[in-house]
């Protein structure tokens, strides 16, 4: 028996969450006293996994660089059976949430998404999952023998551990063609909220869409993604893919800067997984300050240009 970790790739490289997912798989395999192996598609980026304790890494190459859901599901299911795996570890990305339930169904397993800890195995297999947009946790006892775990973003930190990782390449030229993705047109060239380490977000305090240069300029200097509160996308000042919160996207960035956002519970629910929260608001009583790590009481139209100037000075001097 072994634990299999599904490592996601993008443009031939391992996605940045690979170390968290690999470390989770290794920690779980140690707890169960089994080995941890990994699988990925279409990459030559194979060195890094030996830094995180993986001992076998199989890469299926088709020369086809796009996410290919049904083929991935078929190949991973066959791999799980051939290698007598009982647990598959995936991330909580959109791609993993797509294939996770399909694999569980085909493999006759249980799918547990948003898992935030290594499961307890004292008596039965119990997973702790975040639910209600990170406002609560649930504990689920799993009776199935085969389990697909979706690890919640940023809930398990990478643990460096050198291993002698054997890499094996499999050719996928004979894969069954269910669909063929010919090309992907990205909606925007900007960083997406899901991928960004830093997110700069604006709310109604910015008064109008014509003032969004403040958010964009600050995001540019920080290499950040831009985001907004719900009313901003409802009013059409920004597109809905930037809307953060309970009814929008969750953000699990390293730094979240909220400018002119009051901090309503529905907004804050979406950023619970962000590490450092900075709030810029001209009202010292704004609720957002209660959940902020750093706060600046001031007018965004004064503070943000000064911040951009200081960051530019810092960048050019370093
Ligand atoms: C069912 C439901 C679901 C919802 N889901 C979401 C969600 O997912 N995401 C979300 O964001 N909201 C959501 N909302 C709406 C939420 O309740 C708030 O109404 C919304 O978040 C407020 O947006 P805001 O902070 O941009 O605006 P406001 O509440 O109007 O706050 C603007 C803030 O800007 C400050 N400000 C004003 N001028 C300046 C200035 N010059 N400089 C600095 N600061 C300034 C003000 O002090 C104020 O704090 C939901 C509501 C409901 C009922």
Q: Care to describe what's here?
A:
- The protein has 318 residues and is α/β, with parallel strands linked by helices.
- It has 2 domains: 2-171, HUPs (Rossmann fold, 3-Layer(aba) Sandwich); 198-317, TPP-binding domain (Rossmann fold), CATH 3.40.50.1220.
- 25% of the residues lie in helices and 26% in strands.
- The chain contains 7 helices and 16 strands.
- The longest helix has 18 residues, at 300-317.
- Bound molecules: flavin-adenine dinucleotide (FAD).
- Flavin-adenine dinucleotide is lined by residues 203-205, 229-231, 244-248, 260-262, 264, 266-267, 270, 280-283, 286, 299-301.
The number of helical segments is: 7
Strand content: 25-35%
Distance between the termini: 51 Å
User: Cofactors and ligands present?
Assistant: flavin-adenine dinucleotide
Comma- or semicolon-separated keywords:
single chain; about 325 residues; alpha/beta; Rossmann fold; five-stranded parallel β-sheet; 7 helices; 16 strands; about 25% strand; binds flavin-adenine dinucleotide
